[in-house]
Specification:
Belongs to the TonB-dependent receptor family. Hemoglobin/haptoglobin binding protein subfamily. Keywords: Cell outer membrane, Membrane, Receptor, Signal, TonB box, Transmembrane, Transmembrane beta strand, Transport. Its main location: membrane. It is a multi-pass membrane protein. By secondary structure, this protein is mostly beta strands. The chain has one domain: TonB-dependent receptor, beta-barrel domain (Maltoporin, Chain A, Beta Barrel). It has two helices and 35 strands.
């Protein structure tokens, strides 16, 4: 159990701060708290755009050298090297895995992580991040910010945010893979940068029968990016992407069935399957008015469609679910570098959704009756302003974020109209400070307020229903980043997030929410990155955390002190990279997770712990790369567990898999 305590001194320090962190130049990277996993590389583009925020706290960046040779069914598996994140692996076709952090669960029950791809918001309405359109070869880097100190984002930015950047370099390569479970994959990237104009294309195809019976999937993606610089001060760009994904769902097993044969599918799930599509178009503008003022504007239109058939247990009915998220909006950021010590950053954003959500009771995919039919608009508008001072050793900054909502919903079953619950403007102060004690030791602290906004029909009210206040989340963190040796960077932090009137969706399929009361999440993170010499490098992390119901109310007093469901006690990573000869790289990587409870009420048993180890060999052929990967090297058993009534249902994760790949660079 976690026994982390936050001292009154730390609280007093944080409450005195009035300033969030913003980067000025690459040579200032040692004056931050960011840890890099992999080589630090130059990210192409945006040289004339508004200055990005470089936050103080637990910020981690995984770069392309750690991503480009990975091969995954779902893109979220690229996050296993990132400290402090953990996963709920449903493994049910198009709804496969969700990522979580900071004591929140990955059940999809509480949106808490903002996802952006090339700066464009990419969460579904329910809060799940939709990133499967990105194959590993197309990803340039992944940045994960944990905590609620980031003023740039409001909606879904409850425990942190994820920024994924796609490639825009001048390179041409293809790669082919074959492996276990009849898995085949092809990826191709073409990038050309010439005389102020660049074009970049990616195509990816993956087909697999899957580890479990009835878990086959097939996915295809294509993207194009075109950028033009009419002058040294301006860059214009367009990004287009199409993605299609079809998958069978193997269903859930009893605990005995799962341990007896983890490859089997549930008999009742033989007709469960689904598909999803992503269509995306965005326009990007970066402009420097002069050496002081810089502007970035991004506008987008995109659609996420999901259609699936699912059945949770043999005694329940099959459902057909159709969800269409039509999203459009714009994000604008303006920054002013008044001097080497002062920077002002301001932003406005508008995120609009025109969605539909339908559900039917079905028998072998034949509709029997409709029990959900929502057609709704869900619009979020917000902005921020923040000011930073950076002295010789002190970096201190502060900002204020605001958010508001509009929209309405028509319920086709009850034939009722509702308007969105309007709480007015929600204000969220953000404060950060970092002090460089020595050239090798940085001390940092941050504080932030974020909010939880419900989704679905209960985000709307009418004359028969009353409004509600958004749940506020108050978080702070303090820690140190220490370069113990020239080749070793470490970061240790202690954090806590408190909430009142926390909302969680009901599990009865109604789309409603319930108030679970006051909650407290706290823990500590240790992470390190080592680049020992030309032969040896590595990284490791350990996060210990606790998430509890502090005050559930008189009606549920028996739950007081219980753990929140789906939150593991710890998560850890470890990676060793060895070059025995110049052209050969051997990588050993482990990802570990502790137990969690499957209910806020029933807490007599825990599930979900695992210890997974992967081994990889990469050989530089000169004209390309040959790779051999063994995932789950020791064929360890693990599963995702969910509670239905008084019984648990289990979804085993993949056993050992061996893949061989070869790439060719033009």
């Amino acid at each position: 159990m976690c026994s982390t305590r936050i001292s009154p001194i730390n609280i007093a320090l944080l409450s005195c701060l009035s300033f969030s962190t913003i980067a000025f130049a690459d040579d200032e990277q040692n004056k931050d708290s960011t840890l890099f996993i992999g080589d630090v590389i130059e990210v192409h583009g945006q040289s004339n755009g508004a200055k990005d925020v470089q936050l103080v706290g637990s910020v981690d960046v995984v770069n392309r050298d750690q991503l480009q040779n990975e091969h995954v069914n779902i893109t979220v598996d690229l996050f296993t090297k990132i400290p402090g994140v953990y996963f709920s692996r449903f493994n049910q076709g198009v709804v496969s895995t969700d990522v979580a952090m900071r004591g929140f669960n990955g059940e999809g029950s509480m949106p808490h992580t903002k996802l952006l791809i090339d700066g464009i918001p990419s969460n579904l309405h329910v809060g799940l991040g939709e990133m499967d359109a990105l194959f590993p070869m197309e990803v340039e880097s992944i940045e994960v910010v944990k905590g609620n100190q980031d003023a740039r984002y409001g909606l879904h930015n409850l425990a942190g945010n994820i920024n994924m950047t796609s490639r825009r370099d001048d390179a041409k390569e293809v790669e082919f893979l074959a492996g276990s479970f009849d898995t085949y994959e092809a990826q191709g990237y073409f990038g050309d940068v010439n005389n102020g104009f660049s074009q970049h294309y990616f195509i990816g195809v993956r087909d697999t029968k899957g580890y479990r019976d009835h878990s086959a999937l097939e996915k295809h993606t294509f993207s194009g990016k075109w950028f033009y610089q009419p002058s040294n001060n301006t860059e214009l760009g367009v990004i287009a992407r199409y993605f299609d994904y079809e998958a069978d769902a193997p269903g859930y097993l009893t605990e005995q069935e799962a341990h007896r044969d983890s490859t089997q599918s549930a008999d009742y799930a033989q007709n469960d399957s689904g598909d999803k599509q992503t269509r995306h178009l965005s326009m990007h503008l970066d402009h420097a008015f002069d050496p002081v003022w810089q502007l970035s504007v991004k506008s987008y239109i995109q659609q996420f469609d999901r259609h699936r058939y699912l059945q949770y247990t043999a005694s329940s009915a099959q459902q057909e679910r159709l969800e269409k998220d039509r999203q459009y909006g714009a994000v604008a950021t303006l920054s002013a570098t008044f001097s080497p010590t002062w920077l002002l950053s301001m932003g406005l954003d508008y995120q609009a959704q025109d969605n539909s959500n339908e559900r039917f009771v079905t028998v072998t995919k034949v509709r029997q009756k409709q029990f959900r039919n929502w057609d709704f608009d869900y619009n979020n508008y917000g902005g921020f302003t923040q000011l930073q001072y950076r002295g010789e050793r002190l970096l201190i900054s502060g900002g204020l974020r605001f958010d508001g909502f509009s929209g309405d919903l028509f319920d086709g079953i009850s034939e009722q109209y509702k308007t969105i619950n309007d709480e007015g403007i929600t204000l969220q102060p953000k404060f950060n400070v970092l002090y460089e004690m020595t050239d090798r030791l940085n001390l940092f602290a941050n504080y932030g307020v974020s909010f939880q906004a419900p989704t679905g029909s209960k985000a709307y009210i009418n004359e028969q229903s009353s409004g509600f206040d958004f749940s506020k989340n108050y978080g702070f963190e303090t820690g140190a980043k220490w370069q113990l040796f020239d080749w070793l960077n470490t970061r240790l932090s202690v954090w806590q997030q408190d909430a009142k009137d926390e909302l969680t969706p009901k599990t009865d399929g109604s789309g409603g929410f319930e108030n679970i009361g006051e909650t407290k999440r706290k823990g500590w993170d240790l992470a390190l990155s080592a680049d020992i010499n030309t032969q040896w490098s590595g990284f490791a992390s350990y996060t210990r955390q606790e998430a509890k119901l502090v005050e559930p109310g008189e009606a549920k007093i028996a739950q007081k002190g219980n753990w929140l469901l789906g939150v593991p006690e710890f998560t850890a990573t470890a990676g060793i990279i060895y070059h025995p000869v110049n052209k050969l790289k051997v990588s050993l990587f482990g990802h570990f997770q502790g137990d969690y409870y499957v209910s806020n009420v029933i807490q007599d048993k825990q599930y979900g712990d695992y210890k997974l180890v992967d081994l990889a060999f990469d050989y530089d052929l000169g004209w390309g790369n040959a790779g051999l990967r063994i995932n789950n090297l020791f064929d360890s058993y693990s599963d995702y567990v969910y509670l239905v009534g008084d019984e648990t249902i289990h979804s085993p994760t993949d056993g050992r898999a061996i893949n061989f790949s070869v790439s060719y660079r033009f």
